[in-house]
Amino acid sequence: AASAVPGYSPGFKKPPAMLRLKRKRLRRSEPGAAPPPCGEAPPVPSAPARRNPFSSLDNAPRAAGTPQPRERSRRPPPPPPAGESPSAAPFWQLLESVCEDKPARRAEPSERTDILALTDDLHLPVAVPEVPSSPRHEFPADWSIKTRLLFMSSQPFTWAEHLKAQEEAQGFAQHCRATETNLPQSIQEPKLSTELRCAFQQSLVYWLHPSLPWLQLFPRIGADRKIVGKASPWSQDEALQQVLMSDWSVSFTSLYNLLKAKLCPYFYVCTYQFTVLFRAAGLAGSDVITAVISPTTRGLREAMRNEGIEFSLPLVEESRTRKQKNSEVNLETEVANSLEVGEEPAPSDDDDESFSWLEEMGVQDKVKKPDAISIKLRKEKHEVQMDHKPESLALVKGTNTFTLLNFLINCKSLVAVAGPQAGLPPTLLSPVAFRGGTMQTLKARSINAKARVHLAYEDIFSLEVVGPIMPHSLHALTTLLKAAQRGAFSAVLYTHEPTAVFNADLGTASPALNKETVRKDLTACGLHPKTLDQLSQCPTLGKSSIRFLEMKDYAYTWKS
What we know:
Mean pLDDT: 79
Structural class: alpha+beta
Strand order of the largest sheet: 1-10-11-2-12-13-14
Largest sheet: 7 strands, antiparallel
Radius of gyration: 32 Å
Low-confidence stretches: 56-61, 68-76, 82-89, 94-130, 343-353
Number of strands: 14
Shape: globular
Distance between the termini: 59 Å
Number of helices: 15
């Protein structure tokens, strides 16, 4: 019975016999092969290929429905859910790079492929969220700093390539003069639109301090491996470190003065341990200047308290309030249940430092009471556990931000004392010019690729933007693409994770603020009015950030 199974070898065959058997089977499978004799069943073309007997000595026949290991790896992906067409999938799910120097895969082409296959050599894949937002004409403000954007569209990005010298210069001038550019809803010939190309150059500009061209000064958290080995003459020269820090203090103070005068909307201070976001009054729903610090440690918070800086931990307080409400609900339920049974509820003692029960028992002198330090450490145990986590975000408001400015200038732990970043001042990032700042531009390039849709390849065009991409740049770029790509594009956004918590709602919303008031107060801050309207809204993304953004028919959907 075993010999009747196709492809079964009852014993080990020598190589010459196997080669003869292989040639015989190849002749049978040829189209012009002679038909089988009468009474014999014709060979089935869809039968599984005979497995190599030299790969294993286990020649036991397989069950009829058991696929070969090689076939399991080639099994096509499952079809899309019932009622959902492949074309209804988000555009970014259809993109896949096609390299000419790589052979085509034997697997059946899937109708949905991950966009991140285009650049898997640069970044790790990002988990795709499942629930998108409802379509809206504007996406929420994202206060995190992006390190990379990848825009995709069925329309080419040739308008963003090879800017002329005059267009580049005009873009720089428009940025410095805060010129407002209002494009039509749709541009028929984007490549021929000088206004569009100048506005694109304008949206790529940002300001940086310090400027050391041979070093990558953002991100700073976890950047040791990118800086190690680079020339750093200040690391062992204290006099040079003092000069760098003095120059940095002047630039930092200049930025804060611009912020206070409402001539700068916001700026970032990026150290090797934490990041600080200063926002002007009127942004993020607050009517006073705010500064958010993340992540923090118990030592940093203790030093801020010693300097008289009043701050709050809004995420910790929110979690504490939520737990308290849950405990109250559970306590009420337990009391109600005990009353139904007829039991008397046990009295609760909320005072942790009360030891009156020891006196009642008469053993107050025999039991060692915990000292004040032990009680303090026990109370701060939860606070220590959140160090270096997003929940450790600290919020400073109003005049305390000026005290924070002086604290950061004089803080010894602001600069690393050892390692590749030793002696290097923190990085200052700003959307507008400031004293000591250097004009920089984000790096942009267009990429052409292929997308597989319904077993066929279609041209797909992408635009990659790399650098410290701040909130105003993200909004400006999407506004340009809306007009240039005719209201249809998608994007993958890569976030500097320590800054994602800046999107949390900190409870600083002021009911007296409105759009007209913010526009009037911050009219000279250097931002486009529409960008200002977006950044003045209260954050709604929580501790996450926008990962995927798609525009279809001039309406946004996003996933965070």
